Amino acid sequence: MMENSENKEKHFKVPNKHLTKLHEDVLYHIGFSSKDDLPKLFGDVKFVCMGGSAKRMFVFAKFMQEQLIGIVDCKDEPKDICSTDRYSMYKVGPVLAVNHGIGMPSLSILLHEVMKLLHYAKCSDVVMVRIGTSGGIGVKPGTVVVTETAVNEMFEPKYHLAVLGKIKSRNTPLCKDMLETLLSCKQETDSFDVVKGKTLSTSDFYENQGRLDGALCDYTEEDKMEYLREAEKHGVKNIEMESTCFAAMCDTVGIPAAIVCVALLNRLEGDQVSTPPSELKQMEMHPQQIVSRYIKQKLSK
Amino acid sequence: MMENSENKEKHFKVPNKHLTKLHEDVLYHIGFSSKDDLPKLFGDVKFVCMGGSAKRMFVFAKFMQEQLIGIVDCKDEPKDICSTDRYSMYKVGPVLAVNHGIGMPSLSILLHEVMKLLHYAKCSDVVMVRIGTSGGIGVKPGTVVVTETAVNEMFEPKYHLAVLGKIKSRNTPLCKDMLETLLSCKQETDSFDVVKGKTLSTSDFYENQGRLDGALCDYTEEDKMEYLREAEKHGVKNIEMESTCFAAMCDTVGIPAAIVCVALLNRLEGDQVSTPPSELKQMEMHPQQIVSRYIKQKLSK
Question: ipTM score here?
Fold first, then answer.
């Protein structure tokens, strides 16, 4: 009895008290329901790994499957288990790999529904890792940036959202232990650097990131460089479009979280992503290698 | 000579003056380049139709192909012409159908790149239509809402974005002519209503829309109902996640634009989208029918 109730205590729970009133909870965008046998399907999940692109998350799931054969039961090729076309999800033993689309609104829907999935599945000791692509600030293309703090366009460690018409601010801390362990997963033989730094999270790829090559741009190159250098002074090492929302939501529900992105270009030297696709694919593997070593290390304990 | 220069005047141009300095412009997320023969590939585009889901936009492209056979040259099944997995794009004669993912950041990337595509392709007389799904306010599920004005979470007709760390506000007007013509495309035999109203655009599906069934929710049912009734008082007929950004960007570049969404549920009666998938598919056709009639009417002139 004692052991059972202790185990129950450890199950991950989302803080929303209204859910108990629902007869059924349809996780509309990922295509599951609280009436499915979620504990059987997902009860063993320990690592939720996510990134923007569905294809990239399939590559990651396949890579993890190769890495974990013999360690966990995962002999079949990963299949997309989302029944909708909004998101794609793959399960490889205790690793759930899912894409979140582009930007914080798309990410937030996925997080709400995946967090409820973990809740109904009675998961325990889960961590979340965002594996992304980004623009670097003063780092070489191919560098992996592990996020120390996620900041908004004003360089504040905050995520603002409008709840019932009023602005609510959430803090954006990430897990220090995960950060340090991920940094230590760099190996001598790696062809790329792994650094820590602040990550700037924006709501657009063009104007919000100071690019000169969007359809709209009413500032000068000097204005742009001033903003990027200001970012650099604040310790920003890379720019993407999800980190503040990801950090704030994981912090609010109490899931330890980390963000590991590759910088595809150095924004102090240009705006265009004109690297050939084959090289981009190679670079996209860098954060996947770091995260796979992290997962293997945790599973071997 | 005279005629040529007049024609040139009419080509759609994006307002960003920096683009002339680019040797090549890689439209990174949709997989085209200014070095492709864009006038040949896209020069005849007149209607850019977009929605969140890739599968839904394929359904629309296929529907338009059936509708336009014999009117324009479009005998082959539409194929996805984006070489990336970020977005999917289909061309059916003068109709470009493309998905924009979920939320304004994802939409804004697509708009920047599609607007530049239209610019390099030297298109003229282009209009844009967003064909979406939404939650209704005081309307029957299945109702088509054509947007009069797009408003943000504070019910203002504004789109705010952070450019170089400073908040910039853009207005969100839509084309009145398109609105009236779209409303007139309703037919007696339709099983659904077509209404006009304000559309509330949010940055999240759960907390920002006052849902009680997210992973996070720290307000009461009374708070939620108060906000939704306030929305209703402001003339809001439906809630989605893209309209203010869509309206503001189209207005800024000078493309006439309209938003036509189906309401999948009445939010005054609940939060969950628990309608069976087959009925949802049926409802998703309602705005497609209205927009296809609009396009056929314009092409017949």
Answer: 0.94
